[in-house]
């Protein structure tokens, strides 16, 4: 009897149901309904977190782009303001003395008769011929492109006293009745004297402005053709390339 009870007990233990480990074909242990949703919820939370992070990054980049655009515009305004101030100082300085002497001897502070006319008539007459050539060119219709400055003095509308800014934004100007250019001959005198006293410098300047091939000669006709072109934004002003070249030539003489 004792042997039979031992065998029956062994049969119960062997035949009893034991928990089974997950096989490679199964996903894992079996849990309750709430526990089965946990991995899906985790995936959803991760996806939502990634979307929030991506949105935050997009907002950050948009703000950075806006800040950069504002900074870039402020730099442009600052540079334009500085360039305009420098050019206005040049005009004021060069209009105070004798331009011919300033570009010849550097001694431009004299009154009455120009020493060049009295002591070096050949140099004086050579400068005068260059100035007359520029004056005739400036007076010729079509020498300057449209909307590139005062047709009398060649300077930007914003600077010349003959013009007023209609809307205050530099976009449109109109002639003021009875007003005159405050620098009527400065462009003709500086460029004309440059043709006589600094021809190589003037040609170099207009080769750079006109993006002319290095080594290619820039004659007077080329210089006038380049100078008459419209420059839409120079120091925040609408002007012409002759004005830009004049400023560069003034700067060269002031630094020499």
UniProtKB/TrEMBL annotation:
Origin superkingdom: Eukaryota
Positions with biased composition (Basic and acidic residues): 1-10, 37-50
Annotated region (Disordered), positions in chain: 1-52
UniProt name for this protein: Uncharacterized protein
Native source organism of the sequence: Photinus pyralis
Lineage start: Eukaryota, Metazoa, Ecdysozoa, Arthropoda, Hexapoda
């Amino acid at each position: 009897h004792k042997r039979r009870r031992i065998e029956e007990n062994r049969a119960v233990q062997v035949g009893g149901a034991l928990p089974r480990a997950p096989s490679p074909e199964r996903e894992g242990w079996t849990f309750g309904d709430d526990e089965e949703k946990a991995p899906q919820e985790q995936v959803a939370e991760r996806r939502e977190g990634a979307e929030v992070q991506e949105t935050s990054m997009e907002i950050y980049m948009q703000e950075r782009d806006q800040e950069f655009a504002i900074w870039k515009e402020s730099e442009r305004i600052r540079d334009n303001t500085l360039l305009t101030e420098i050019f206005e100082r040049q005009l004021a300085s060069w209009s105070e003395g004798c331009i011919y002497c300033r570009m010849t001897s550097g001694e431009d502070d004299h009154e009455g008769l120009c020493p060049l006319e009295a002591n070096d008539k050949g140099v004086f007459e050579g400068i005068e011929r260059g100035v007359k050539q520029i004056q005739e060119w400036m007076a010729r219709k079509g020498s300057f492109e449209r909307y590139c400055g005062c047709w009398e003095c060649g300077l930007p509308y914003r600077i010349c006293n003959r013009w007023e800014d209609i809307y205050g934004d530099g976009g449109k100007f109109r002639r003021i009745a009875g007003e005159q250019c405050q620098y009527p001959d400065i462009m003709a005198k500086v460029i004309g004297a440059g043709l006589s006293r600094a021809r190589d410098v003037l040609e170099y300047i207009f080769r750079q402005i006109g993006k002319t091939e290095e080594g290619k000669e820039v004659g007077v006709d080329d210089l006038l053709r380049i100078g008459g072109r419209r420059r839409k934004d120079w120091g925040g002003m609408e002007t012409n390339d002759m004005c830009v070249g004049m400023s560069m030539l003034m700067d060269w003489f002031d630094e020499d």
